Amino acid sequence: MARLQGKTAVITGATGGQGRIACMRFAEEGATVIGTDLDAAAGADLTTELQEKGFAMTYVAADLADPEGVERLAVAAREFDGIDILYANHGIILGKPLLETSIEEWDHVQDVNIKSVFLLTKALAPLMEGRAASIVNVSSVGGLTVFPNLSAYGAAKAGLAMFSKCAAVDLAQRGIRVNAICPGVIDTAMPRNFVATLPDNPDEDEVMKGFAQGHVLGRLGRPEEVVNLALFLASDESSFMTGSVLTVDGGWSLQ
Ligand SMILES: NC(=O)c1ccc[n+]([C@@H]2O[C@H](COP(=O)([O-])OP(=O)(O)OC[C@H]3O[C@@H](n4cnc5c(N)ncnc54)[C@H](O)[C@@H]3O)[C@@H](O)[C@H]2O)c1
Predict the structure, then answer these.
(1) pTM for the whole thing?
(2) Domain boundaries, the chain
(3) Which of these, 4, 112, 118, 211, could form a disulfide with 29 (CB 3.0-4.6 Å)?
């Protein structure tokens, strides 16, 4: 039987590099997918793509840093007969020296990367109670190890790892498990967005080559290599795991 048969999964960052693959793989494993991201048109295209393959998908365009956006998602989620999985995969990055980071930039990175997950958890946990439900939060190796020019993102992702552990304790009696994934550098738009915000306009290919070499395995990660772990954590196969913070980082954090 498919690993997520009969389960309903909210997947955030649904139209991003990892989110698109997640929507497809979770649907292939039998989940009904409620995808959400900022862009309505990209979400409509993704929904059509999945539906044409015969999969069940709904999409909600929402800014998850905004409590109203999270509430709009929750209203849509309440139309379903309970939620089994929250895969909090959305995020933004900022590559700026600490002293050049404005208060507004700092707040925005925190709002998108961590406050939103607090809001999502508060809004969706009541729909997940008593269902052997699973929350999978996407942190980062940037929340475990130090990268230059990454203080706002690093702090948010480190906070998200700890938030996941705290939530695991607070939600255990409600039958909700919470785990976090820390990817290394994955070949999506995000690392290139990071390079684009760095000072002194470094050569993108050179920086990306350096990222690849920073992993013990000597290459960038692929989105599906993160999604494979998320699938396991979302499914009942990981039923005795909660509060775990797991790396999928090609060995980056070993060095
Ligand atoms: N790609 C990497 O190297 C890497 C490494 C470590 C962790 N991560 C994490 O993996 C996750 C997925 O990132 P990705 O690699 O697919 O990058 P991506 O940029 O392709 O996708 C991120 C998605 O998040 C969405 N998003 C941004 N702000 C939002 C908001 N306010 N509300 C709702 N959605 C919003 C974006 O629209 C985008 O589709 C992120 O949490 C990221 O921090 C990525």
Answers:
(1) 0.98
(2) 8-254
(3) 4
